[in-house]
Amino acid sequence: MKSDDSVCTQDARGLVTLARIETHEKIIQFLQNERRGKLLDVPSGTGILSSKLKEFGFECCCCDINPEMFKAQGIEFKVADLNKSVPLETNHFDFITCIDGLEHLENPHNAIREFKRLLKKGGKLFVAIPNYLNIERRMKFLLTGSFTKPVSQEMFKERFNCNTAMMHINFVSYPTLRFMLESNGFHITKLDIDRPKPKMILLFPITLLIKLYCWFWPKKAKERYWLKETLSKNIFSGGNTLIIIAEKS
To answer: How far is the C-alpha of 224 from the C-alpha of 143, rounded, in Å?
Structure first.
């Protein structure tokens, strides 16, 4: 699934990445430190990420709702809709990668439940979502009332071919994702970003004022709103994409 603001790049095999290349690089970097095992990449897009991970020794399987996009060779592929049941065996995978997928779903809660079902105990989930809580996006929402550009019916037909699976239709923020993960027996082990955004320095005075205001909040209120995480450097002043690693208990 292509993110609304992603930048497409192509590798030597002609496979196109539909997510930000820095996100793929971070995911590969983290997985290189893991033992090799069975890995599910969903939604897989063209299959570029799984092709790279296969070269590092992972036994890869791919799923996507749009089979016509998948171009990778020598990797098992199944059509799957994460809003529904994924046609794969329970407790089968050591790792699942879900890059820029949850925000495209009508029911991201179902996707997390499916990831829990598909992963072995102790298996790891690697999720990348848009960083809706960085200061730039918060300011855009304050000014426009929307996290992304509104989609007219004309754009829906011409750009998205009347397919909501290609759109950001569910704004999954860090608190929402954390709730979904913990409700399904996952615990977060790492939080990272794709890359820093240099222009965030221009919004530093606003971030400073917000942090100063929240500093006076009662301790319980800070804990209730998870301000330690949501005002952290990675989220509040971070990049376009959040990368979360969670382990199934």
So the answer is: 26
Nearest of 126, 21, 11, 138 to residue 71 by alpha carbon: 11
Domains of the chain: 9-133+156-200+239-248 (3.40.50.150)
pLDDT tens, residue by residue, 64-73:
999 998 999 9
Q: Count of CB atoms within 10 A of residue 190's CB? A: 12
* pLDDT less than 70: residues of the chain: 1-14, 16
